[in-house]
Write a structure and sequence with these properties.
D-amino Acid Aminotransferase, Chain A, domain 1; globular; five-stranded antiparallel β-sheet; alpha+beta; 3 domains; Rossmann fold; Dna Ligase, domain 1; six-stranded mixed β-sheet
């Protein structure tokens, strides 16, 4: 059987969410094909959870040794870290260099889609609609007055180079803007200020199997919070309606656009694209190469609507990716 290490945890504020996502994937992988286990990543190292033991994984040859002396080697890595160092492509770059086959998008695709500013500017170059925005660099000068005048209020302030749901603020007045920027800089080195888009928020999952790139049903998000923040995402403070309450024509347009973005960014495995529909026109909010996959997450709800079991879903993705790597 193939030894699969599902890399989870990481260095970001969403450490525990990543472990929940990876655990749900692990539970649904076919046991007769894959000898799968979690590999928890933290700043001390990589640690495989294997048959009740925690064994340190060598970053040189991807092996680990159990207490009884048995040594195992990871044949295939599945990167499911929200944030640094997985969603931003760092692990993928290392695996590419060491020629370890892995699931999830490539280093380049992950890094580009992870950065909210660079990703949206890239998509804008293909005439894909995104919000007006301004990039701020740490320790550089900027004028909060000019930002407010240019983008208007309310506006959003987000860490541009962080996959976390932390550090995001909706700002209604100039006197609150500086604190929002400071909070965002606490999560990353770059910050993006974005004009507010008033409309209906929807999201669409997408993946690749032997038949091609497959979009999932769209989900509409109605947050009890002021926007789809951490509490709305993970603490149940939102309505997530699948399929979204939009026309068939608009659903098809968003699904086609999601597939186009998936291909433009050369993504692999699973991804999700978030949109705001303004006057029947979809604007991209952000792209996720490692969307949440816990029981509270959006993609499992899309799969349920499409009548695709979680086990079959990952089985299809794994089968396709294995063929690409010859594993």
């Amino acid at each position: 059987m193939i030894n699969v290490g599902i890399f989870c945890g990481g260095y970001s504020s969403e450490f525990e969410i990543s472990i929940k996502s990876a655990s749900m994937i692990l539970e649904n992988l076919p046991k007769d094909e894959y000898n799968a286990f979690l590999v928890r990543v933290n700043e001390e190292g990589w640690f495989a959870d294997y048959q009740g033991e925690s064994a340190e994984v060598s970053p040189i040859d991807f092996t680990f040794t159990l207490k009884n002396g048995e040594q195992l080697k990871i044949d295939l890595a599945h990167v499911y870290i929200h944030g640094d160092p997985g969603e931003n492509g760092k692990l993928q770059a290392y695996f590419e260099m060491k020629k370890l086959p892995f699931l999830n998008s490539s280093a380049l695709s992950s890094e580009l889609s992870f950065d909210k500013w660079f990703c949206n500017q890239f998509l804008r170059g293909f005439d894909i609609k995104v919000a007006e925005s301004q990039l701020l660099l740490k320790n550089s000068s900027y004028s909060t007055q000019e930002i407010g005048e240019r983008l208007g209020y309310p506006l959003f302030v987000k860490p541009a180079d962080s996959g976390s749901s932390y550090g995001i603020s909706k700002v209604y007045a100039h006197e609150d803007l500086q604190k929002a920027i400071d909070d965002a800089f606490a999560e990353g080195n770059t910050v993006v200020c974005e004009a507010f888009l008033k409309g209906t928020e929807v999201t669409c999952g997408v993946y690749r199997n032997d038949s091609g790139v497959v979009p999932l049903p769209c989900t509409e998000i109605v947050s009890e919070s002021d926007f789809f923040d951490y509490d709305a995402k993970y603490l149940g403070k939102s309505q997530e309606i699948t399929p979204a309450r939009i026309s068939d024509k608009l659903t098809k347009e968003i699904q086609d656009l999601t597939v186009e973005i998936y291909q433009l960014l050369q993504m692999r495995s699973l991804a999700r694209v978030d949109f705001m529909i303004v006057e029947d026109k979809p604007y991209v909010i952000e792209v996720n190469t490692t969307p949440g996959f816990s029981s509270e997450s959006l993609v499992p709800k899309m799969l349920k609507c499409a009548e695709i079991s979680i086990g079959d879903f990952w089985k299809e993705i794994y089968a396709f990716e294995r063929k690409q790597f010859g594993v």
